[in-house]
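README: folding subset

This subset contains proteins for which both the sequence and a predicted structure token string are available. Records are stored as plain text. Below is the entry for NfeD-like C-terminal domain-containing protein (142 residues), shown exactly as it appears on disk.
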Amino acid sequence: MNTVWLIVAVAFGIAELMTTSLTLVWFSIGALILMVLSTFIESIIIQIALFAAISITLLVIFTKYFVDKDKTFKYDTNLQGIEQKKGVVKVEILPYMTGIVTLTGEDWTAISENNEKIEAGQLVKVIRIEGVKLVVKPTDNQ
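--- output ---
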């Protein structure tokens, strides 16, 4: 049975080399541990149960330790810095309806902050982002 656990360990090790997640390595280590324990435990059912328990325990404990991410990290998306920028209304924004605003060369769905009508061609300022819509208000500043 030692040979079987060695084959399982090598298989999980090779599979881990194809990923970058540090997930399958714990199953490889679990199989190596079972390779040693199988000399003392004859029951295949107990061996499989121990393999699963050891591997999952290692996965849970060490994944939290090795993959702990910085809590202050923020994902960089194109939404950073859009608030307070100015754009031009491309498709008229009607009260309680959406329109289109061109901002930094991209078209965005937008709604009016005060549910007012904003004509096409009007300069607007982004107040905030709600879901996938910009909330804008008219501005006279260039």
